[in-house]
Amino acid sequence: MKNTYMDLKESQLKQTAHLILQALELEGLEQEGLQSKVKELSAPVTSRVTVIDRNGKVLADSEDDPAFMENHLDRPEVKQVIDKGKESGISTRYSHTLGYSMMYAAIPVEINGEVEGVVRVALSLENIEKAIRHLRNTLTIVLLAALLLTALIGIRIAKGIAKPVEEMMLVSEKLKDKDYTARVRMQPKGELGQLANAINVLAASLKSQMEKIQENEQQLSGVLRNMMSGVLLVDKNGKILLANRAIGCMLNADPLAFTGKQHVEIVKNAGLSRLIDRCLNEQSEIRDEIQFYYPDERILDAHLAPYVGENGELKGIVAVLHDITDIRRLEKMRSEFIANVSHELKTPITSVKGFTETLLDGAMEDEEALHHFLGIIHKESERLHRLINDILHLSKIEQHMIPLEMENVNVAEVVDRVADTVRKDVEKKGLELLLPAEREIWIEGQKDRIQQIILNLVSNAVSYTPAGGKITVSIADRGDRIAISVKDTGIGIAQKDLPRLFERFYRVDKGRSRNSGGTGLGLAIVKHLVESHNGKIEVESEEGRGTEFTVILPKKQ
């Protein structure tokens, strides 16, 4: 605005200077009445008019006496015309005397084609400067007000944007730190509101997915933890990624310590390590049986299969190990049981068949031989009858086909009844039978089964104790349990035979067992009867010095 005003005033001053020059009608600069004429012309234009010759001498001035005015040759507007030959000269200067700026415009005075001087017109810029100052102040106030208003609006808008954005950033940080309960509580409008809703939906979705993942992990962890089969996850470099509790038990080590280690240093079994390496190389399923010797001797059924990623690349293998030691042992026991049953049945059947054929061949005529052979046949048939009854009884006990009929049983009374049963045999062999001093020992159980347990143990003691020996039956109260002990001074049992003592048809002394009329199933029946009462049976023996069986039963079932 100031430049526009100044350009306008410069143009006006030049025009005024030309008008005054024409009005003066100068034929020479030294003409009379120039001073009065200049004053007369300056009045209507409200500008100061000065006529200066080419040497800078003031010839006329509308406001001062030219005689007292200094030389004006050094004035910029005069120099522009006189020295530089310009068509006009313009200059603006601040007047310390007047206290405001003045604008000067000078044009040449040409006489006979020569520049003899200049006509200068001066205009006060006081009003213009006041207008400019007023305009500047007004604009400053308006701009400051606009800036302040803009700042206030900007701050409010910024807060409206910044607070939700800060809260969204905070929620994002919480989500990154796995706090899936975090939500954007503010609900701004517009796009920020849509973004806040999207973050909340994302958080809810993440929470739901993480809960599902955690639930799946817990299910998988629960399945792996409670599996009886050992599970081993091995990466393609042979490092263990996962091992469950069952395989830790098989290897007698903490499965958590397996992670990150090579399978060779953990499994310590050449057979399994070879199967793992083979499965990694061939990338095919493998199933085989392997034998472990540490920490215990075991037979394991190993099933190995590769697992691959989304693109079909090999990630590693999964090895599932199932302990089939007991299965193989049971198969062996079943095979032995069949062989033993066949063997036990073969002897009496052979005897019956042989003596029957002998009688049919003519021995029936001999009355003494007839009675003798029929007695043997009767004895062997009785033996067959006992054997079959014991097998059927044992089978029923194992299959829980004979339910327990609970009652309060005085164990001392049962021992007395057993003593009465075996007393003849004891006296016949000249044995000493010592009974417990306790008279009132009560437990919950089935009386007949408890009697059968004690009878079997005492009968065995009588059978395997030489004449003059001693059999001691004692009862001990152990708080919530009782212990029934049957101790003899008989032939004893070798340590190697103790682990198999309760197997069916297992005999320590096969010849003497058969001669005693035993079926080989007595101790097996005792063990099952004890277990049906939630008890346990223990045996201690030293060869040549005697045996002690201890039955521990709970007082309450």
Count of DSSP-assigned helices: 14
Strand fraction band?
15-25%
Cα shape: rod-shaped
Helix content: 40-55%
β-strand number: 17
Structural class: alpha+beta
Major pleated sheet: 5 strands, antiparallel
The low-pLDDT segments are 510-517
Which strands sit side by side, in order, in the main sheet?
Answer: 2-1-5-4-3
Which value, in Å, is the CA radius of gyration? 64 Å
Q: Kindly report how far apart the N and C termini lie.
A: 113 Å
Q: For the residues shown, what is the average pLDDT? A: 83
Short description:
With 557 residues, the protein is an alpha+beta fold. The chain contains 14 helices and 17 strands.
Structural write-up:
There is one protein chain. Helix content is 50%, strand content 22%. It is of the alpha+beta class and 557 residues long. Strands 2-1-5-4-3 form a five-stranded antiparallel β-sheet, with helices on both faces. A five-stranded antiparallel β-sheet has the order 7-6-10-9-8, with helices on both faces. Helix 4 runs parallel beside helix 5. The longest helix has 51 residues, at 126-176. The radius of gyration is 64 Å and the shape is rod-shaped. Mean pLDDT is 83; it is low at 510-517.
Topology:
Layout: H1 2-24, H2 34-45, E1 48-53, E2 58-61, H3 76-82, E3 89-95, E4 100-111, E5 114-124, H4 126-176, H5 190-226, E6 230-235, E7 240-243, H6 245-251, H7 263-267, H8 270-282, E8 286-292, E9 298-308, E10 314-323, H9 325-360, H10 367-398, E11 407-410, H11 411-429, E12 432-434, E13 442-445, H12 447-463, E14 470-477, E15 481-488, H13 510-515, H14 522-532, E16 536-542, E17 546-554
Parallel strand pairs: 12-14
Antiparallel strand pairs: 1-2, 1-5, 3-4, 4-5, 6-7, 6-10, 8-9, 9-10, 11-13, 14-15, 15-17, 16-17
Helix pairs in contact: 1-2, 4-5, 9-10, 10-14, 11-12, 12-14
